[in-house]
Amino acid sequence: MKLSARNQIKGKIVEVTRGATTSHVRIDIGGPVVTASITNESVDELNLVAGKEAYAIIKASDVMVAVN
Q: What is the pTM of this model?
């Protein structure tokens, strides 16, 4: 797999919660958990299930940073 996105974080799926049209896929990336909201069709096509390794790929044109 080759992508132009530089923020590719490997992890393991810990939970897939299906809704009417979209699913929330939670990926443990070594402590923190990233949640992606994707279509149910994509979940089925990628065979996403708890325990499977996956990548959280973050592509954004803007990144904001904040502190208190």
A: 0.83
CA distance 24 to 36: 6
- Structural domain count, the chain: 1
The average pLDDT across 11-33 equals: 96
pLDDT of residue 66: 84
CATH code for the domain of 46: 2.40.50.100
Domain with 36 in it: 7-58
Phi, psi at 39, each rounded to 5°: -70, 155
- Look up residue 6 and give its two tokens: 């530089």
Share of the chain above pLDDT 90, in %: 68
**Is the CB of residue 56 less than 8 Å from the CB of residue 27?**
yes
Farthest CA pair distance, the chain: 42
